[in-house]
Amino acid sequence: IDPKIWRACAGASVQIPALFSRVYYFPQGHAEHCCPSSSVISSAVASPIPCVVSSISLLADPITDEVFAHLSLHPVAQDQFQFQFPFPPSSRFGEERDDEKVVTFAKVLTASDANNGGGFSVPRYCADSVFPPLDFQVDPPVQKLFITDVHGVVWDFRHIYRGTPRRHLLTTGWSKFVNNKKLICGDSVVFMRKSVHEMFIGVRRAPSSNKGGGGGSYYGDEYYAG
Amino acid sequence: IDPKIWRACAGASVQIPALFSRVYYFPQGHAEHCCPSSSVISSAVASPIPCVVSSISLLADPITDEVFAHLSLHPVAQDQFQFQFPFPPSSRFGEERDDEKVVTFAKVLTASDANNGGGFSVPRYCADSVFPPLDFQVDPPVQKLFITDVHGVVWDFRHIYRGTPRRHLLTTGWSKFVNNKKLICGDSVVFMRKSVHEMFIGVRRAPSSNKGGGGGSYYGDEYYAG
DNA sequence: TTGTCGGCCGATCGCCGACAA
DNA sequence: TTGTCGGCGATCGGCCGACAA
């Protein structure tokens, strides 16, 4: 994935350490993250281990589209830790020179946005700063947008400026996207424009308060809460 | 899974060895089955290994509904192989006493059967011998069938006898089943009746000549052959 | 007996402006 | 400016008998 697109999808609050930078690996934290139920951790490995970030991969979940980073940590001796790797972590990974700025806009989906059969209300700022400009000579102003997701799949949306009062909307193509990505109210979409004609779309899932998996049973194609 | 239902789904041509029977394990065949591309097999383990079937599990794929058996093989010494396990493999696994015969009918789906929006043409013999009898006093004769799949999920179908000339059809509920199981023309469905009111439905996939996975690319929700 | 087709009816999808927050 | 709603037109699913293999 393009590092700029990855960063835009992840959001500004997400930071990852620089390549070859010095970090501490906390086995206990890792274990609890992987398996929150079993709290029995061997105290022999409970102390933090000095490491160096030996590789970084920016990835996206093939199903949920959520972006994540895969870091390889190489353990180093404690006494060498402070002096062996004097790489200045000046530039964080994924923060490239802004010779080609990526314009970004994220919106939390409303009920109307996520509703099946509905469209997507495009905030004014998003339409003005991220989307290509419409031709306001024709009425109503309409264009097709071809937008690429994190997997390189291209989606096309009908972008129209209509209604009283006028507002920007995504209509045709939107519900197909919502269904395919299984987006629900509270999730976010991220629109990005890299160059004049390169647009990308990303997804951020809402913090799962209690997603599925609970009791209940399937009866044919219908789901019955138990 | 009920062994009788498992056998009916698998079909008469499928046979599995008896529990505790003596078999030979062929590592090379196993390896080639798992990974057909790499043909480099260590000759040290290329000879068949005498084993005893120590356990048998009748299972069904949670996605495709295809039934399969899981056999555990326990290796035994060559000299003990012939005498150590004199269990007579008189009754094959899954071939129980027919104190309660399972009536079965399988049909290969036609284009019309698998077509979206269409129904299912029920062969006369299936309706007569497997389905519960219709009440021919009313016109048209109709009933709802509640049929359980290999996972215990119950599906209901509308069974009607109509048209000129008259024929048995499954209408409402059928296309939902086809879509959920992703059945296509050439696949088979198996109808089973264990007791008077217990009906089951199974699936046999068509021998995959060249199923998906090949070249091509996704463009939005559409698939374009490459 | 049963596979395929066109007709047709009803349900759903999804685009629309009207409001109001 | 933009979230939600009811209206309504187009599309599609899916039930039907007609016909022929």
Automatic annotation (TrEMBL), chains A, B:
Places the protein is found: Nucleus
Domain of life: Eukaryota
Domain named TF-B3: residues: 105-207
Chain's role: Auxin response factors (ARFs) are transcriptional factors that bind specifically to the DNA sequence 5'-TGTCTC-3' found in the auxin-responsive promoter elements (AuxREs).
Family stated for the protein in its record: Belongs to the ARF family.
Assembly information from the UniProt record: Homodimers and heterodimers.
Protein name: Auxin response factor
Full protein stretch here: 15 to 240 of 564
